[in-house]
Amino acid sequence: MTEEQAxxxxxxxxxxxxxxxxxxVIDEVHAAVTEGKTEVNESKSPQDEGLLFxxxxxxxxxxxxxxxxxxxxxxxxxxxxxxxxxCGPALITSDLLEVVPAWSNHSLAFAADGLDREIDFVPxxxxxxxxxxxARGLVGLLQEIRGELDxxxx
Amino acid sequence: xxxxxxxxxxxxxTRLGPLAxxxxxxxxxxxxxxxxxxxxxxxxxxxxxxxxxxxxTNLKQATAYLFRxxxxxxxxxxxxxxHAEIRFANLPPLEAHAGIWIAGKSQxxxxxxxxxxxxxxxxxxxxxxRTPLWGPVLLHAECxxxxxxxPFWQGRNFLGLTLDLGWKGGILLMNQDRANVxxxxxxxxxxxxxxxxPGNTADRQDVLKLLRRKFRRYRETGDV
Lengths: 154, 224
Description:
Chain A is an alpha+beta fold. In chain A, about 60% of the residues lie in helices and about 15% in strands.
Protein backbone atom coordinates (compact mmCIF):
# COMPACT_ATOMS: atom_id res chain seq x y z
CA MET A 1 0.00 0.00 0.00
CA THR A 2 1.42 3.37 -0.99
CA GLU A 3 1.70 6.34 1.37
CA GLU A 4 -0.90 8.05 -0.80
CA GLN A 5 -3.41 5.21 -0.55
CA ALA A 6 -2.81 4.96 3.22
CA UNK A 7 -3.60 8.68 3.49
CA UNK A 8 -6.75 8.31 1.36
CA UNK A 9 -8.06 5.41 3.44
CA UNK A 10 -7.15 7.20 6.70
CA UNK A 11 -9.02 10.33 5.66
CA UNK A 12 -11.96 8.28 4.38
CA UNK A 13 -12.20 6.46 7.72
CA UNK A 14 -11.91 9.72 9.67
CA UNK A 15 -14.77 11.12 7.64
CA UNK A 16 -16.91 7.97 8.20
CA UNK A 17 -16.25 8.05 11.95
CA UNK A 18 -17.22 11.72 12.10
CA UNK A 19 -20.47 11.05 10.19
CA UNK A 20 -21.41 8.33 12.66
CA UNK A 21 -20.73 10.34 15.82
CA UNK A 22 -17.47 8.58 16.62
CA UNK A 23 -15.16 11.59 16.66
CA UNK A 24 -13.85 10.48 20.06
CA VAL A 25 -12.14 7.54 18.34
CA ILE A 26 -10.34 9.97 16.02
CA ASP A 27 -9.36 12.11 19.03
CA GLU A 28 -7.76 9.10 20.74
CA VAL A 29 -5.73 8.30 17.63
CA HIS A 30 -4.73 11.94 17.14
CA ALA A 31 -3.50 12.03 20.74
CA ALA A 32 -1.28 8.98 20.10
CA VAL A 33 -0.06 10.42 16.77
CA THR A 34 0.84 13.72 18.42
CA GLU A 35 2.93 11.94 21.07
CA GLY A 36 5.05 10.34 18.32
CA LYS A 37 6.43 6.84 18.21
CA THR A 38 9.11 5.58 20.59
CA GLU A 39 11.52 3.13 19.01
CA VAL A 40 14.25 1.00 20.51
CA ASN A 41 17.59 1.72 18.96
CA GLU A 42 20.16 -0.96 19.81
CA SER A 43 23.63 0.37 19.19
CA LYS A 44 26.55 -2.02 18.73
CA SER A 45 30.11 -1.20 17.96
CA PRO A 46 32.04 -3.26 15.37
CA GLN A 47 34.70 -4.38 17.91
CA ASP A 48 31.95 -6.10 19.96
CA GLU A 49 31.47 -8.72 17.23
CA GLY A 50 34.25 -10.99 18.52
CA LEU A 51 33.13 -10.93 22.15
CA LEU A 52 31.33 -13.71 23.97
CA PHE A 53 27.55 -13.22 23.96
CA UNK A 54 27.42 -12.32 27.67
CA UNK A 55 30.11 -9.67 27.28
CA UNK A 56 28.58 -8.36 24.10
CA UNK A 57 25.20 -8.11 25.82
CA UNK A 58 26.67 -6.10 28.65
CA UNK A 59 28.28 -3.70 26.23
CA UNK A 60 25.29 -3.32 23.95
CA UNK A 61 23.61 -0.02 24.59
CA UNK A 62 19.84 0.21 24.30
CA UNK A 63 18.69 3.64 23.27
CA UNK A 64 15.33 5.09 22.48
CA UNK A 65 14.40 7.49 19.73
CA UNK A 66 11.21 9.43 19.21
CA UNK A 67 9.92 9.94 15.69
CA UNK A 68 6.73 10.76 13.79
CA UNK A 69 4.39 7.95 12.74
CA UNK A 70 4.39 7.24 9.01
CA UNK A 71 1.09 7.47 7.13
CA UNK A 72 0.86 3.67 7.06
CA UNK A 73 1.50 3.39 10.80
CA UNK A 74 -1.04 6.12 11.47
CA UNK A 75 -3.60 4.13 9.46
CA UNK A 76 -2.72 0.99 11.44
CA UNK A 77 -3.40 2.92 14.68
CA UNK A 78 -6.80 4.04 13.38
CA UNK A 79 -7.73 0.51 12.31
CA UNK A 80 -6.82 -0.84 15.76
CA UNK A 81 -8.87 1.93 17.36
CA UNK A 82 -11.95 1.18 15.23
CA UNK A 83 -11.64 -2.51 15.98
CA UNK A 84 -11.42 -1.88 19.74
CA UNK A 85 -14.04 0.86 19.94
CA UNK A 86 -16.64 -0.26 17.42
CA CYS A 87 -16.26 -4.04 17.07
CA GLY A 88 -15.01 -4.76 20.62
CA PRO A 89 -18.26 -4.37 22.59
CA ALA A 90 -20.24 -6.73 20.31
CA LEU A 91 -17.41 -9.28 20.30
CA ILE A 92 -17.10 -9.14 24.10
CA THR A 93 -20.83 -9.86 24.50
CA SER A 94 -20.39 -12.86 22.22
CA ASP A 95 -17.39 -14.03 24.29
CA LEU A 96 -19.40 -13.54 27.49
CA LEU A 97 -22.14 -15.87 26.29
CA GLU A 98 -19.59 -18.57 25.51
CA VAL A 99 -17.83 -18.16 28.84
CA VAL A 100 -20.94 -17.86 31.06
CA PRO A 101 -23.90 -19.45 29.24
CA ALA A 102 -26.01 -18.84 32.39
CA TRP A 103 -26.04 -15.13 31.52
CA SER A 104 -27.74 -15.66 28.15
CA ASN A 105 -31.20 -14.11 27.82
CA HIS A 106 -30.38 -11.79 30.73
CA SER A 107 -29.04 -8.25 30.73
CA LEU A 108 -25.81 -7.23 32.35
CA ALA A 109 -26.17 -3.94 34.21
CA PHE A 110 -23.42 -1.49 35.14
CA ALA A 111 -23.63 1.24 37.75
CA ALA A 112 -21.16 3.53 39.46
CA ASP A 113 -20.89 2.54 43.13
CA GLY A 114 -22.11 5.25 45.46
CA LEU A 115 -22.91 7.72 42.70
CA ASP A 116 -26.37 8.70 41.60
CA ARG A 117 -25.93 7.85 37.94
CA GLU A 118 -28.01 5.97 35.44
CA ILE A 119 -27.65 2.21 35.20
CA ASP A 120 -26.46 0.96 31.79
CA PHE A 121 -27.97 -2.27 30.52
CA VAL A 122 -26.39 -4.60 27.99
CA PRO A 123 -28.83 -7.27 26.79
CA UNK A 124 -27.37 -10.71 26.20
CA UNK A 125 -30.28 -12.04 24.19
CA UNK A 126 -30.83 -13.01 20.55
CA UNK A 127 -30.63 -9.35 19.54
CA UNK A 128 -26.84 -9.38 19.87
CA UNK A 129 -26.40 -11.87 17.02
CA UNK A 130 -26.88 -9.24 14.29
CA UNK A 131 -24.38 -6.91 15.97
CA UNK A 132 -21.85 -9.70 16.38
CA UNK A 133 -22.17 -10.61 12.68
CA UNK A 134 -21.69 -6.96 11.68
CA ALA A 135 -18.70 -6.64 14.01
CA ARG A 136 -17.08 -9.79 12.61
CA GLY A 137 -17.65 -8.49 9.07
CA LEU A 138 -16.06 -5.17 9.96
CA VAL A 139 -13.09 -6.92 11.61
CA GLY A 140 -12.63 -8.86 8.35
CA LEU A 141 -12.53 -5.66 6.30
CA LEU A 142 -10.11 -4.01 8.71
CA GLN A 143 -7.92 -7.12 8.58
CA GLU A 144 -7.86 -6.80 4.81
CA ILE A 145 -6.41 -3.30 5.10
CA ARG A 146 -4.05 -4.44 7.85
CA GLY A 147 -2.83 -7.27 5.61
CA GLU A 148 -1.87 -4.81 2.89
CA LEU A 149 -0.20 -2.56 5.46
CA ASP A 150 1.77 -5.43 6.98
CA UNK A 151 3.02 -6.40 3.53
CA UNK A 152 4.39 -2.88 3.24
CA UNK A 153 5.73 -2.49 6.76
CA UNK A 154 7.65 -5.82 6.72
CA UNK B 1 -5.28 -8.23 -5.48
CA UNK B 2 -4.84 -4.69 -4.10
CA UNK B 3 -7.90 -3.31 -2.38
CA UNK B 4 -9.94 -0.51 -3.93
CA UNK B 5 -10.07 2.47 -1.55
CA UNK B 6 -13.60 3.51 -2.48
CA UNK B 7 -14.98 0.00 -2.35
CA UNK B 8 -13.55 -0.87 1.05
CA UNK B 9 -14.64 2.46 2.55
CA UNK B 10 -18.17 1.89 1.22
CA UNK B 11 -18.24 -1.61 2.75
CA UNK B 12 -16.90 -0.34 6.07
CA UNK B 13 -19.50 2.46 6.03
CA THR B 14 -22.42 0.03 5.73
CA ARG B 15 -21.27 -1.91 8.79
CA LEU B 16 -20.12 1.07 10.82
CA GLY B 17 -23.57 2.73 10.81
CA PRO B 18 -25.56 0.18 12.85
CA LEU B 19 -22.59 -0.65 15.11
CA ALA B 20 -21.82 3.01 15.81
CA UNK B 21 -25.36 3.60 17.06
CA UNK B 22 -24.85 0.80 19.54
CA UNK B 23 -21.39 2.02 20.61
CA UNK B 24 -22.67 5.51 21.34
CA UNK B 25 -25.47 4.16 23.50
CA UNK B 26 -23.77 1.26 25.15
CA UNK B 27 -21.75 0.85 28.29
CA UNK B 28 -18.08 1.62 28.10
CA UNK B 29 -15.90 -1.12 26.73
CA UNK B 30 -13.87 -1.57 29.85
CA UNK B 31 -16.95 -2.35 31.97
CA UNK B 32 -17.82 -5.21 29.64
CA UNK B 33 -14.17 -6.25 29.58
CA UNK B 34 -14.13 -6.49 33.38
CA UNK B 35 -17.36 -8.52 33.32
CA UNK B 36 -15.74 -10.86 30.80
CA UNK B 37 -12.73 -11.23 33.11
CA UNK B 38 -14.98 -12.09 36.06
CA UNK B 39 -16.72 -14.62 33.80
CA UNK B 40 -13.37 -16.18 32.86
CA UNK B 41 -12.40 -16.41 36.53
CA UNK B 42 -15.71 -18.15 37.32
CA UNK B 43 -15.40 -20.54 34.37
CA UNK B 44 -11.79 -21.49 35.12
CA UNK B 45 -12.67 -22.31 38.74
CA UNK B 46 -15.59 -24.45 37.59
CA UNK B 47 -13.32 -26.16 35.05
CA UNK B 48 -11.08 -27.45 37.84
CA UNK B 49 -13.92 -28.74 39.98
CA UNK B 50 -15.31 -25.79 41.92
CA UNK B 51 -18.98 -25.10 42.40
CA UNK B 52 -19.56 -21.53 41.26
CA UNK B 53 -22.62 -19.39 41.86
CA UNK B 54 -23.40 -15.73 41.22
CA UNK B 55 -24.69 -13.98 44.33
CA UNK B 56 -25.96 -10.51 45.16
CA THR B 57 -24.87 -8.35 48.09
CA ASN B 58 -27.40 -10.13 50.36
CA LEU B 59 -25.61 -13.40 49.52
CA LYS B 60 -28.72 -14.66 47.72
CA GLN B 61 -28.52 -16.19 44.25
CA ALA B 62 -28.43 -13.31 41.77
CA THR B 63 -31.47 -12.96 39.55
CA ALA B 64 -30.08 -9.84 37.84
CA TYR B 65 -26.41 -9.21 37.12
CA LEU B 66 -25.18 -5.78 38.21
CA PHE B 67 -21.51 -4.80 38.11
CA ARG B 68 -19.55 -1.75 39.21
CA UNK B 69 -18.61 0.80 36.56
CA UNK B 70 -16.41 2.61 39.07
CA UNK B 71 -14.42 1.23 42.00
CA UNK B 72 -16.30 0.69 45.20
CA UNK B 73 -16.37 -0.83 48.63
CA UNK B 74 -17.01 -4.51 49.24
CA UNK B 75 -18.21 -3.66 52.76
CA UNK B 76 -20.71 -0.94 51.90
CA UNK B 77 -21.91 -1.37 48.33
CA UNK B 78 -24.14 1.40 47.02
CA UNK B 79 -26.15 -1.06 44.92
CA UNK B 80 -27.01 -4.74 44.79
CA UNK B 81 -23.83 -5.78 42.97
CA UNK B 82 -23.12 -9.30 41.77
CA HIS B 83 -20.12 -11.42 42.72
CA ALA B 84 -19.13 -15.05 42.22
CA GLU B 85 -18.86 -17.53 45.07
CA ILE B 86 -16.35 -20.33 44.42
CA ARG B 87 -16.42 -23.51 46.51
CA PHE B 88 -13.90 -26.35 46.37
CA ALA B 89 -14.67 -29.44 48.47
CA ASN B 90 -13.09 -29.35 51.95
CA LEU B 91 -11.49 -25.94 51.41
CA PRO B 92 -12.40 -22.45 52.59
CA PRO B 93 -14.71 -20.90 49.98
CA LEU B 94 -13.62 -17.97 47.84
CA GLU B 95 -15.34 -14.94 46.34
CA ALA B 96 -14.61 -13.13 43.07
CA HIS B 97 -15.49 -9.44 42.83
CA ALA B 98 -15.13 -6.81 40.13
CA GLY B 99 -14.02 -3.25 40.85
CA ILE B 100 -13.44 -3.27 44.62
CA TRP B 101 -10.82 -1.69 46.84
CA ILE B 102 -8.16 -3.88 48.46
CA ALA B 103 -5.71 -2.59 51.08
CA GLY B 104 -2.11 -3.34 50.15
CA LYS B 105 0.91 -3.94 52.38
CA SER B 106 1.32 -0.15 52.56
CA GLN B 107 -2.26 0.03 53.99
CA UNK B 108 -3.15 2.11 50.93
CA UNK B 109 -6.36 0.92 49.24
CA UNK B 110 -6.05 -0.04 45.57
CA UNK B 111 -8.79 -0.54 43.02
CA UNK B 112 -8.70 -4.11 41.71
CA UNK B 113 -10.56 -4.75 38.47
CA UNK B 114 -11.20 -8.38 39.35
CA UNK B 115 -10.09 -10.02 42.57
CA UNK B 116 -10.49 -13.45 44.15
CA UNK B 117 -10.21 -13.57 47.94
CA UNK B 118 -11.21 -15.87 50.75
CA UNK B 119 -14.86 -15.70 51.69
CA UNK B 120 -14.06 -15.51 55.42
CA UNK B 121 -12.21 -12.24 54.73
CA UNK B 122 -15.16 -10.95 52.66
CA UNK B 123 -17.56 -11.90 55.49
CA UNK B 124 -15.34 -10.12 58.05
CA UNK B 125 -15.28 -7.04 55.82
CA UNK B 126 -19.07 -7.05 55.44
CA UNK B 127 -19.57 -7.15 59.21
CA UNK B 128 -16.82 -4.69 60.16
CA UNK B 129 -17.04 -2.20 57.29
CA ARG B 130 -13.27 -2.19 56.73
CA THR B 131 -11.41 -2.63 53.45
CA PRO B 132 -10.31 -6.19 52.54
CA LEU B 133 -6.63 -6.90 53.16
CA TRP B 134 -4.13 -8.17 50.61
CA GLY B 135 -3.24 -11.32 52.58
CA PRO B 136 -6.34 -13.41 51.82
CA VAL B 137 -6.21 -12.55 48.08
CA LEU B 138 -5.65 -15.52 45.77
CA LEU B 139 -5.38 -13.55 42.54
CA HIS B 140 -6.20 -10.22 40.97
CA ALA B 141 -6.58 -9.37 37.30
CA GLU B 142 -6.18 -5.84 35.99
CA CYS B 143 -7.99 -5.09 32.73
CA UNK B 144 -6.60 -2.59 30.22
CA UNK B 145 -8.89 -1.95 27.28
CA UNK B 146 -7.53 0.80 25.08
CA UNK B 147 -8.41 2.18 21.66
CA UNK B 148 -4.93 3.75 21.40
CA UNK B 149 -1.63 1.99 22.20
CA UNK B 150 -1.52 0.96 25.86
CA PRO B 151 0.85 3.37 27.60
CA PHE B 152 4.04 1.96 29.08
CA TRP B 153 3.18 3.43 32.47
CA GLN B 154 0.35 0.91 32.76
CA GLY B 155 3.03 -1.76 33.08
CA ARG B 156 4.82 0.22 35.79
CA ASN B 157 1.52 0.84 37.62
CA PHE B 158 0.67 -2.83 37.47
CA LEU B 159 4.02 -3.90 38.94
CA GLY B 160 3.64 -1.34 41.75
CA LEU B 161 0.15 -2.63 42.51
CA THR B 162 1.24 -6.26 42.41
CA LEU B 163 4.18 -5.50 44.71
CA ASP B 164 1.89 -3.82 47.26
CA LEU B 165 -0.50 -6.78 47.07
CA GLY B 166 2.37 -9.08 48.03
CA TRP B 167 3.02 -10.51 44.52
CA LYS B 168 -0.14 -12.54 44.91
CA GLY B 169 -1.31 -13.76 41.54
CA GLY B 170 -1.26 -10.48 39.60
CA ILE B 171 -2.45 -10.81 36.01
CA LEU B 172 -2.44 -7.94 33.52
CA LEU B 173 -4.94 -8.42 30.69
CA MET B 174 -4.69 -6.17 27.64
CA ASN B 175 -6.85 -5.99 24.53
CA GLN B 176 -3.82 -5.52 22.27
CA ASP B 177 -0.18 -6.51 21.92
CA ARG B 178 2.15 -4.16 23.75
CA ALA B 179 5.64 -5.60 23.67
CA ASN B 180 7.36 -3.29 26.15
CA VAL B 181 4.60 -3.59 28.76
CA UNK B 182 4.59 -7.38 28.41
CA UNK B 183 8.40 -7.53 28.62
CA UNK B 184 8.39 -5.38 31.76
CA UNK B 185 5.72 -7.42 33.55
CA UNK B 186 7.13 -10.79 32.52
CA UNK B 187 10.53 -9.82 33.91
CA UNK B 188 8.97 -10.54 37.30
CA UNK B 189 8.18 -14.22 37.80
CA UNK B 190 5.25 -13.57 40.11
CA UNK B 191 3.34 -11.39 37.63
CA UNK B 192 1.72 -12.28 34.32
CA UNK B 193 0.72 -10.27 31.27
CA UNK B 194 -1.55 -11.70 28.59
CA UNK B 195 -3.41 -10.38 25.60
CA UNK B 196 -7.18 -10.85 25.74
CA UNK B 197 -8.55 -9.53 22.50
CA PRO B 198 -12.34 -9.67 22.10
CA GLY B 199 -13.42 -12.46 19.76
CA ASN B 200 -10.02 -14.17 19.93
CA THR B 201 -10.55 -17.76 21.08
CA ALA B 202 -6.82 -18.50 21.45
CA ASP B 203 -6.36 -15.50 23.78
CA ARG B 204 -9.31 -16.63 25.86
CA GLN B 205 -7.85 -20.13 26.15
CA ASP B 206 -4.49 -18.71 27.30
CA VAL B 207 -6.20 -16.71 30.04
CA LEU B 208 -8.30 -19.71 31.11
CA LYS B 209 -5.19 -21.89 31.23
CA LEU B 210 -3.40 -19.46 33.54
CA LEU B 211 -6.43 -19.04 35.81
CA ARG B 212 -6.99 -22.80 35.97
CA ARG B 213 -3.38 -23.22 37.08
CA LYS B 214 -3.94 -20.80 39.96
CA PHE B 215 -7.19 -22.48 41.04
CA ARG B 216 -5.61 -25.94 40.71
CA ARG B 217 -2.83 -24.84 43.08
CA TYR B 218 -5.46 -23.60 45.54
CA ARG B 219 -7.36 -26.88 45.23
CA GLU B 220 -4.18 -28.83 45.98
CA THR B 221 -2.69 -26.67 48.74
CA GLY B 222 -5.54 -24.55 50.13
CA ASP B 223 -3.07 -21.65 50.20
CA VAL B 224 -3.87 -18.19 48.89
